[in-house]
C-alpha cells in the first residue's frame, strides 16, 4: 500500500511540476535558503484539482539524491541547512565514492606580454595578477565540481617567473577554501598542460610557441587527505651563514602525521604482513619537485625511509640556478609565515638594540627560498609508470663463459638462441665476433648497452598484486601471468679486455659489465629509439584495458607527466605534441599537467629492470621502487576506485 501511494505521488508531482534537471537545480537554491515548498503549475489543459504546493521532501529519496548530486561544492552546505533529512542526504552524498575525485584545468598559451592584463610587465596595473587568475579559475570550471579543490598545481615557462609569486598569492586570495588548500608552482624550460577544450599541449623550448602557464585543481573526497613538506634553500653558502635552519624536524613531523592517517583510514597499514603494508603505502601518491638535485635526492631518501612502496614521481625543474623555480604554500607554511611577519613587526616596533640590528631593521620580511617540496595525496588509487624506448639490436644470446671481475662480470663468449628458445649447436661465439656483427647491423657501438633479461613482477597500479623480496614466492607460478614480465637490466659496458698473448694483435677477448651474470643468463645488446618509446607508452596504456574500456571504465580523471628535456621535439625530429597526442587519443577525457625536467623521479621504465638495495638495515635486494634517472618520461594517472 505504501509503495502504491509512493508511485501515485511521484506520478502526480511529475505531471504537475514538469521541471527538468536544470530546473531542479535552480529550485534547490531557493529551497536551500529556507523555502522548502515549491509551487507547481497546474497541468496544461486539465481541470483536475492538482495540488498547488508540493514539498520536495515528498519526492523519492533517489530523486532527492539525484538533485543533490547535481549541486556544486559551494551549494551543498546551503542545501544541508534546509532540513534535517537533507542534512543526512548531503552527509551520505559527500561520503559516497561518486563525490570528489575530480579535476579542473585551464591554460594560457603565450608570455605575460600577450595577456591584456599583464602586458605592462613589472609596471602593470596593480591587481592585474588577481584578475588574470580569476579568468583562469572561471575557465577551469572549478566551482561546478562536487567538492572543493584541495590541491592547486601551476607550471609555467621562464617568462612567467617574475610574476609567479603574485599569481600564487592570487590563487590563495580568490579560492573560497584558502585556509586549507595546498599550492605548488614550478618554473621549467617547458611545460605540459591541458586547455579548456581538453587538448594536451607540450610547450618546450624547441617549439614555435615556447611560453605558457598551465593550472590544475585536484578535487578530493572525504576519504583522501593532502600532506606536504618543503626544503628551504640548503646550499653550502646559506648553511655557512646560518640564514636558514634544517627542515628535517618539519619533514619527520609531517611523515608521522601521514602514518597516523593511514593507520586510521587503511586497516591494512597496521597489518604485520609486508605485502599488506606495501599495498597500503602504494595508496599514497607523492609529487616531488625541486631545483636542487641534492635536496631532491635527500628528500626522496627521507620519504622512502618511512614509506618504501609509495607511488612517488616528479623531477628537477628550473632553468637558472640564480632564480627561484619552486613556489610552495600549505596551511602549515602560511601559519609559520604569519608568525614570522608578526615577529618582524614586533622587532620593528621595539627598535634596534645594536648597530647591526639597526642596519637590518629596515629590511622587509622576505619569504625563504624553497628548493624542493613534496605533496602527498593519501588513500588514492594511481597508475604510475616510466618509459624510455629500449630497443633490441641483436638476437638473444645465452652466456657461455663469464668470469668474476672487480668491476662486474667478464663476458668472454656467448651462444646464440634461436627464435623458439633453443640454443644453437656448435662452439660458443667469442665476444669480439659478436661485436663485429653488431657494428655491421648498427653501424657503430655508440649508444649501445648490454642487457640481461630478468623475469619480475611489474606492478604499476596501486591495486596490482604485491610480492615482497623476502616472502619466497615463485612469481611465475603464484601470481597472474599478466603481471609477470620479462624486463631488461641494461648497463653500459665498463671496459674491454684485450688479448695480450699474441704480440702485434688487438683482438678483443672479453667485455666487462657491472652485473652478476650466470652461465645460463639470456642477454643481448640494446639502444633507445623514439618509435620504441611510443610503443612502450602504448604498452603502459594497454594495462588499462581496450580503447572502449579506457574511455568508459578506466576511471582516470587526471594525470601528471614529467618528460626529460632531451625528449620532446628533440627526440621526435622537431614534431610537437607527439607523446601528448598518444595520451589524448587513448584517454580523450583525461587532462594532464607536468613539465620538462633536468632529471626525473619515478620507477624504472616499463621494459627495464634495475636491482637495488631496498628495505631495512639488512639491505634486501629487490627491484627499485623509485629512482632519479634521465632520458625518461614519467606518467602517473589518477583513478577512481
Question: How would you describe this structure to a colleague?
Answer:
- With 641 residues, this protein is of the alpha+beta class.
- Strand 10, helix 11 and strand 11 form a beta-alpha-beta unit.
- Helix 6 crosses helix 7.
- The protein starts with a helix and ends with a strand.
Keywords:
alpha+beta; nine-stranded antiparallel beta sheet; 27% strand; globular; 641 residues; six-stranded mixed beta sheet
* CA-atom Rg in angstroms: 30 Å
Helix content: 25-40%
Largest sheet: 9 strands, antiparallel
Structural class: alpha+beta
**Number of DSSP strands?**
30
- Helix count? 18
Poorly predicted parts:
14-51, 235-245, 355-362, 469-479, 613-622
**Average pLDDT for all residues:** 80
Shape: globular
Distance between the termini: 39 Å
**How much of the sequence is in beta strands?**
25-35%
Amino acid at each position: 500500500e505504501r509503495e502504491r501511494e509512493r508511485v501515485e505521488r511521484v506520478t502526480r508531482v511529475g505531471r504537475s511540476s514538469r521541471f527538468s534537471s536544470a530546473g531542479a537545480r535552480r529550485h534547490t537554491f531557493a529551497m536551500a535558503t529556507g523555502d522548502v515548498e515549491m509551487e507547481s503549475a497546474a497541468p496544461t489543459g486539465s481541470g483536475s484539482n492538482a495540488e498547488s504546493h508540493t514539498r520536495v521532501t515528498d519526492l523519492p529519496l533517489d530523486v532527492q539524491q539525484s538533485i543533490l548530486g547535481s549541486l556544486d561544492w559551494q551549494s551543498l552546505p546551503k542545501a544541508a541547512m534546509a532540513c534535517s533529512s537533507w542534512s543526512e542526504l548531503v552527509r551520505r552524498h559527500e561520503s559516497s565514492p561518486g563525490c570528489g575525485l575530480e579535476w579542473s584545468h585551464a591554460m594560457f598559451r603565450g608570455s605575460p606580454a600577450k595577456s591584456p592584463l599583464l602586458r605592462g610587465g613589472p609596471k602593470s596595473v596593480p591587481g592585474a595578477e588577481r584578475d588574470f587568475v580569476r579568468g583562469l579559475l572561471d575557465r577551469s570550471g572549478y566551482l561546478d565540481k562536487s567538492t572543493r579543490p584541495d590541491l592547486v598545481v601551476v607550471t609555467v615557462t621562464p617568462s612567467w617567473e617574475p610574476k609567479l609569486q603574485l599569481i600564487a598569492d592570487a590563487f590563495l586570495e580568490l579560492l573560497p577554501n584558502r585556509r586549507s588548500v595546498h599550492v605548488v608552482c614550478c618554473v621549467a624550460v617547458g611545460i605540459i598542460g591541458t586547455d579548456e577544450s581538453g587538448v594536451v599541449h607540450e610547450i618546450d623550448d624547441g617549439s614555435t610557441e615556447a611560453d605558457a602557464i598551465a593550472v590544475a585543481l585536484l578535487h578530493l573526497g572525504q576519504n583522501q587527505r593532502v600532506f606536504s613538506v618543503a626544503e628551504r634553500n640548503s646550499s653550502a653558502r646559506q648553511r655557512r651563514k646560518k640564514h636558514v635552519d634544517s627542515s628535517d624536524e618539519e619533514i619527520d613531523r609531517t611523515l608521522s602525521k601521514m602514518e597516523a592517517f593511514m593507520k586510521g583510514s587503511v586497516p591494512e597499514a597496521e597489518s604485520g604482513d609486508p605485502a599488506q603494508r606495501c599495498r597500503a603505502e602504494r595508496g599514497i601518491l607523492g609529487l616531488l619537485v625541486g631545483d636542487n638535485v641534492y635536496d631532491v635526492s635527500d628528500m626522496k631518501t627521507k620519504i622512502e625511509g618511512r614509506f618504501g612502496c609509495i607511488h612517488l614521481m616528479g623531477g628537477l625543474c628550473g632553468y637558472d640556478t640564480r632564480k627561484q623555480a619552486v613556489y610552495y604554500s600549505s596551511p602549515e607554511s602560511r601559519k609559520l609565515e604569519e608568525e614570522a611577519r608578526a615577529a618582524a613587526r614586533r622587532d620593528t616596533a621595539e627598535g634596534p638594540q645594536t648597530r647591526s640590528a639597526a642596519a637590518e631593521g629596515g629590511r622587509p620580511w622576505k619569504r625563504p627560498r624553497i628548493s624542493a617540496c613534496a605533496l602527498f595525496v593519501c588513500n588514492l588509487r594511481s597508475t604510475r609508470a616510466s618509459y624510455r624506448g629500449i630497443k633490441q639490436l641483436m638476437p638473444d644470446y645465452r652466456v657461455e663463459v663469464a668470469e668474476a671481475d672487480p668491476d662486474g662480470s667478464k663476458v668472454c663468449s656467448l651462444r646464440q638462441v634461436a627464435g623458439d628458445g633453443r640454443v644453437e649447436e656448435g662452439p660458443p661465439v667469442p665476444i669480439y665476433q659478436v661485436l663485429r656483427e653488431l657494428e655491421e647491423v648498427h653501424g657503430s657501438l655508440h649508444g649501445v648497452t648490454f642487457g640481461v633479461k630478468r623475469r619480475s613482477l611489474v606492478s604499476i597500479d596501486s591495486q596490482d598484486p604485491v610480492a615482497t623480496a623476502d616472502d619466497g614466492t615463485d612469481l611465475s607460478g603464484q601470481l597472474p601471468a599478466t603481471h609477470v614480465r620479462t624486463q631488461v637490466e641494461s648497463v653500459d659496458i665498463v671496459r674491454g679486455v684485450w688479448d695480450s698473448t699474441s704480440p702485434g694483435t688487438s683482438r678483443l677477448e672479453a667485455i666487462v659489465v657491472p652485473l652478476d651474470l650466470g652461465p645460463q643468463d639470456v642477454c643481448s645488446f640494446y639502444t633507445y629509439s623514439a618509435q620504441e618509446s611510443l610503443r612502450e607508452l602504448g604498452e603502459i596504456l594497454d594495462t588499462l584495458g581496450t580503447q572502449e574500456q579506457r574511455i568508459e571504465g578506466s576511471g582516470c580523471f587526471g594525470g601528471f607527466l614529467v618528460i626529460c628535456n632531451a625528449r620532446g621535439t628533440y627526440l621526435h625530429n622537431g614534431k610537437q605534441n607527439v607523446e601528448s597526442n598518444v595520451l589524448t587519443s587513448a584517454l580523450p577525457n583525461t587532462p594532464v599537467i607536468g613539465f620538462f625536467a633536468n632529471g626525473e623521479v619515478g620507477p624504472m621504465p616499463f621494459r627495464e629492470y634495475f636491482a637495488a638495495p631496498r628495505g631495512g638495515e639488512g639491505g634486501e635486494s629487490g627491484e627499485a621502487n623509485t629512482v632519479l634517472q634521465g632520458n625518461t618520461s614519467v606518467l602517473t594517472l589518477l583513478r577512481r576506485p
